[in-house]
Every structure is written in structure tokens, then in C-alpha cells.
Design a protein that fits this description.
Length: 240
Amino acid sequence: MSRLELLPAVDIRNGQAVRLVKGASGTETSFGTPLAAALAWQNAGAEWLHLVDLDAAFGTGDNREIIRELSEQMNIKVELSGGIRDDASLAAALATGCRRVNLGTAALEQPEWVAKVIAEHGDKIAVGLDVVGTTLRGRGWTSEGGDLYEVLARLDSEGCARYVVTDVNRDGTLTGPNLELLRNVCAATDKPVVASGGVSSLDDLRAIATLTGEGVEGAIVGKALYESKFTLEEALEAVS
Ligand SMILES: O=C(O)c1ccccc1N[C@@H]1O[C@H](COP(=O)(O)O)[C@@H](O)[C@H]1O
């Protein structure tokens, strides 16, 4: 069985590394500069960084320059999310040298464009499936975007390489991952799944790691790291 990949998260709002509760704008807790956070995870042994431009996701601006500068200092793989919705934003994201991008809103609102970029860029494109129950959310998780399994079937048929599955109601809450959701999504697709939302403990990571045989490839870890529930070194050891 393959080892669970860990992706520490750096979410950026107004130039700061922040954590939100259930993705709600206005619930930010700041944790210093994005570069300091990213370097801390890189120096602690991260193989991946999950980097989110929250302003771009919410439509309140962007943090492109910070992301460009930060990316120059990363020698680990970066997955970049937030506001990637057209050719220009996709080109800017890929120009940072990131390993892959996550599309959210675009996958719900612009299916033809998403099918086109999946065909053009292959596994550089992942889709973030951000859900409440089985209903997808877009536009900073404020709009409803259809049924999870219908959209998943459409994206699968278009060759989408990977899905990042977030239970919105667990994100930033430290209440544990939604293992049932992860199992259900893995049963519905052959493509790898990255788990997001709710991780609070090393046991949560061990529980997600039991799903690697079903298709869970990685887990995003945010608030638990920022609130020192465990260290990244401990997390990497726990899933090794
Ligand atoms: O990560 C978050 O906390 C988050 C909160 C609210 C909205 C989006 C969030 N993150 C990721 O951003 C992309 C969606 O951006 P877009 O819709 O493509 O502009 C997606 O990967 C979310 O998981």
C-alpha cells in the first residue's frame, strides 16, 4: 500500500497566512506571512505545499505577487488553488512553477473550458470538490454548484486526473475528517483523491491513511499544524 502524502496548507488572505472556519469569510485567524509559513513547512520536511489564494477564491482581489515570490523559494511540489477560472489566471498559476492547480468554481460554472484545459494540461489539473452533504460549493463556498456525483462522473469522463475533496463543514473545525465521504468518492472514481477538512490529530491522519488502498492519495493539513496539535515531523512519521 502506498504512503499517504501530506500537504500542509498555506491559505492567503490580504497578504497573510490565515485559517478560516468552514471557509467563511470573516472567520480568519492570522498566522504571519505566507512565506514564513511555507518555509516552515518546507524546512520541516514537507514534500508538498497546498497553497490557496483566498482573495481570488472570494473575488476580493488576489495575492498573485506574493504567490509568485513565495514559489521562487519553494523546492518542494506546490498545489495552487483559488481563482483559477480562465486562460489568464491558469497561465499565471502555471507560470509560478507549481506542480498542479486545483480548479473549483470553474469546474461547476464553465464545464467546457475545464474539459479543454484537462485535455491540454493532463495531471497538472486537479479539481477541488468542495461539498456540503453531497452538494458542491463554488465562489468562496458561497454558491451551490450541483451534485457531487454527477459532476464527478462528468469530470471523470473528461479525463480529470485527480480530485481534492473538502467537507466544507469540517474545514477549520478540528472535528475530524469525513471518512465516509472519502470512501464514497473513492468508490465513485478510479482517480486519486486528496482529503481535506477536519484533521485534528495524528489518529485522524492514521485513519485517512487506512484509505490509501481505496484511492486516497493525500491529506491536506491546516489548522491542526498552525495550532500545534502536532508537528509536521510527527505527522510525516505517523503516516510513514
Ligand atoms: O481553502 C479554503 O479554506 C477555501 C475557503 C473558501 C473558498 C475556497 C477555499 N479553498 C480552495 O479554493 C479553491 C476554489 O477556488 P475557485 O473556486 O477555483 O476560485 C478550491 O480548491 C478550494 O478548496
